[in-house]
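Hey all, sorry for the wall of text incoming. These are the two entities for the joint prediction.
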Amino acid sequence: MQLNSKLYDVDDFFAAQELFHSSGWTDGLPVVPPTSEAVAACLDWAGMEPAQLVGIEPVRERSINAEKLAINAVMAGCLPMHFPVVVAAWTAMLEQEFLLHGASASTGGSAVLLVLNGPIRNEIGSDGTFNALGSSDRATSVIGRALRLALINQLDVRPGQIDRSTFGHPGKFSYCISEDEEGTSWNSLAEERGIPAEISAVTVLAAGAPRQLMNEWTTVPEEILETFAAEIRANMRNYSIWPGNYAILIPPQLRAHLQAAGWSKADVAQRIFERARIHRREWADVGKGAVVRDRGDTEYPAMESPDQLMVIAAGGPAGGFGAVIPPWLGHKSHAVTMAIGACVDCGPIPS
Amino acid sequence: MLQILDPTHEAVPAGVQHAPRLASLSGKNVAFISNGKEGTTGFFKHLSSFLKEEYGVADTRLLVKSNYSAPADLHIMQSAKEFDAVVTGLGD
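and here's what came out:
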């Protein structure tokens, strides 16, 4: 396979690290040196030619090709079997509605949350149980990292360059979750968003850091979900009032109560939609009284409709915790769901 | 010895050509492209006064983007061409 990227000769693994770090090509962590053999193996696995166009970042009109994504995937530690997921995620990120340039450049500091669904999860050994939002497994760790390295190297999303984040958050290293589909009777996130159950899919969201909550003192669905709604309301008061694709992670201990009561994901979303809303006057309680003005009675919902909520089954078997992941700029940047595999550059299958 | 590949976007970027500089701002019309954030109103109001008083700018106009995290709307880019100079920038 003929690759097109420039080649560098280095003495050894350590020399490769210094070249890449000093050139600004890393996230600060050691990288796997991207040899031609390793990159070609990724492209072979995905059935892609090196120059195959994955997509174009629409604002800066930068083309993103398979070879460059493969190089960054190898650097992240991806094996060939991880690469199709990286391609699908990037294809989704380049969709206009995701607003990749804004999400990458903003002082708001969002990272790309990636959710995996379908058979691919088991094929690559990903795990949506213990430590779901941390270093749960090799696959989600390296795939999430590949997204960030490619942002750095293909779109110059480096701190102080394109990336103007005031803080950012640790998801900028890797922010990939595998949904625990085997641990629930609920439809998967991808199914809820229009992908048939047997199709592997990715969902990407420009997202803030996860906000952990806890409620181990009730089995009543409305009360459990009120804690989630309260965390969303807090985000609206303290961070951003704009509606959009919030994601909530519900672990087995809390899912059991919801499922036992016959609640579906749609029921959960409807309840959260109804409860997660604030009035502008509440900003005065958190030091933002200056912008309440005469609009104190204006109500702001966290979502424009229930189907904007992304309900994800994930987390270890014990612990009445939950997580709320807020969107970066929900009314301008939207989650995108895309199938993996034979149709990496097309949208959801029409029903 | 290892041979490793360049991970960056190696395509040569298109050259940027600066617009021709005005010899003077006196009597000119200047547009401001604002991202619409809270702090911009006072800033551009002050800038407008400053340019008029110190540099004799004839008139200014504020063009506000519909999305502060996206490039300027097409109608703003078209409007901007009607002016002698445009002020834009990066801020928060």
